[in-house]
């Protein structure tokens, strides 16, 4: 059964159920998805504190010109003041130290000079609240900080530590088994003989899936021999997701689809109206998601971006797993409309305030080099008039940072 891109993605996401929740130490939560709301357990900061090295004092003591104050104690971060300040007194204070009672400002050390033992001379006046933050100025106790579904970035991890969440509850990362098939494949360290090619798909797909937060189970190369291939498929079906490449078409040696059915996989569709990537399987066995991707490198990468990565993001608990889409203007180059949705490798460039997507010369679905020179994919809708130069088109970025123009989504 051949389905549209939209229907295929809908069927995939309907079957990609978020994985169980677990508590994970902070050092391991980067990129994971929160399963609970995080609120502040106390005011931040929890006390009035200095933002400068200098002298804590009462602004009412300072006058124009110079003021001499008695220095009654030294305050360092992590230490509590021993007593309140009286009028005409100051405390030497370091950044992060608590403000003593009786002080309402901190004078930077650069605006002071020694006035003899136990005294400091302050130049000029000072303002109340100068160079300090008060309790709860950043966050109040009980305030919502991070929502469920938040993908944890480094700053989020730091915030969790800051508010005492040592082991946040997050969705389990999916285990994704990757299997390349075909007698023509050799490993990258081998020199291919006549008619052979290196196994690039497994490594590229593993990198794509790992970037989406999955744990990779690398199954190597499955030869076109039914029993051997069946054993590898069975191993892959022990993971949350099985991704195979090659053997997804209808040739004599294309065994993957048949073996998947024999192993109890219910096939949802076996072709997608997309270019590149039409001969693609998707099915399930229980909660296990199974993707049979084409063997051509560009087709495998595009179909993984469109269907596998959204599934991994949904399994990981993300609430918006669909591919990111930008809107840009089409650059030069012939574009032909087809009855299938097309994804063309393109490079971005800035033209004043406009972002232009320039299609990259490609020699078809086996041309891995074209995607290396691209920032992403221009989307050409099916069954419509082909867009022309200057038309606004959809663009699917393939990296967090688009190198050619320095943009990020």
| CATH H level, superfamily name of the largest domain | MoaB/Mog-like domain
Query: What is the CA-based Rg, rounded?
Result: 30 Å
Q: What share of the residues does DSSP label as strand, in percent? A: 25-35%
Arithmetic mean pLDDT: 91
Instruction: Provide the spatial order of strands within the biggest beta sheet.
Output: 8-5-7-6-10-9
Ranges where pLDDT stays below 50 over 5 or more residues in a row are: none
> What distance lies between the first and last C-alpha atoms, to the nearest angstrom?
34 Å
Q: What general form does the structure show?
A: elongated
- The count of DSSP E runs of length 2 or more, i.e. the number of strands, is 28
CATH architecture verdict of the largest domain = 3-Layer(aba) Sandwich
Classify the fold: give the CATH topology of the largest domain: Molybdenum Cofactor Biosythetic Enzyme, Chain A
Residues in helices, as a percent range: 10-25%
Total of helices: 7
Give the oligomer, counting copies of the same chain as homo and different chains as hetero.
single chain
Structural class: alpha/beta
Number of domains: 4
Class of the largest domain in CATH? Alpha Beta
Largest sheet: 6 strands, mixed
